[in-house]
Design a protein that fits this description.
41% helix; elongated; mainly alpha
């Protein structure tokens, strides 16, 4: 009952909506190649309750935390990818983005 209330309050979805997402994703994280179970609702922090696209899908806990640490900012994520690939030409200014 508490989970259902939390889903409705935070993401404006029902437990049935959540279960339908789980089924549509085969029970797995929405990140390709990830084989971990989908446990967390991924939502767009720039949208408000009731906006289309508020809920993007379901992720495993580690991927949900990782995306959140980049503040839903694709440019910030691309900088991290460039870093991983050794492609950064210069170090970003102190303090981050």
């Amino acid at each position: 009952m508490q989970r259902q209330a939390n889903l409705k309050h935070r993401y404006d979805i029902t437990l049935e909506d959540f279960d339908a997402l789980i089924l549509a994703q085969g029970g797995l994280c929405a990140i390709p190649r990830c084989e971990r179970p989908a446990t967390d609702v991924d939502h767009d922090h720039s949208k408000r309750m009731g906006d289309p696209g508020l809920v993007r899908g379901l992720l495993c806990g580690p991927h949900n935390t990782s995306l959140g640490s980049f503040n839903d900012d694709p440019a910030y994520m691309l900088e991290a990818i460039a870093y991983l690939r050794g492609e950064l030409k210069e170090r970003p200014p102190f303090g981050g983005p």
